[in-house]
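Run folding on both entries below.
>entry_1
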Amino acid sequence: VQLVESGGGLVQAGGSLRLSCVASGSILSINDMGWYRQAPGKQRELVAAITSGGSTNYADSVKGRVTISRDNAKNTVYLQMSSLKPEDTAVYYCNAEIWRAYLAVPHDYWGQGTQVTVSS
């Protein structure tokens, strides 16, 4: 199983970015999917998460500026970010809890990360 993120880049403060993450491989189904971020010198933190049924959860720091969504048919999760601030600068990681064939429990998988840099 692989998770591949895309959509990061350099943007000015106040701008927008849309991140995408596609899961591929021997996947039976996906439970929760989420986006985390890690800034230099800081711990990785949850940005937003979404259940297979579409319920969402957001970090207080991004509420109102970020929307997480998913396309279950495409095993894809998106993160639409707007009104970006310099403090949003970080490597953004995709995470998914995935059921695979012949395994009794789902496992957590991570993408390689995509850099988001917001200039002031």
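>entry_2
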Amino acid sequence: QVQLVESGGGLVQPGGSLRLSCAASGSILRPANMGWYRQAPGKERELVGRITYGGVTILTDSVKGRFTVSGGNAKNTVLLQMNNLKPEDTAVYYCNLHLPATYYSRGIDYWGQGTQVTVSS
């Protein structure tokens, strides 16, 4: 089993910054992608950014130039640095660890408990 523990959410004014951290522990038996999703009230969960086990980072268009994702499977941690935050970034942010499917195993997703980020004046 894999456990993900998140920290770093909170309340910030527009234009401010926050950094989210996620640490993974447990039986991570093959290379994994790690990343962050978010879910705002009344909306579906969406990808914010991820880093693959090969070190490739992906960010959704709405956060490019403001957010960075770092860390990854080698360190079993993933960080999300969020700058120039906007009210529309308000959501619960979830850490994700994805074990890609192989010939022998299906793909598996693990989730953190979620951390609230609120951007408001």
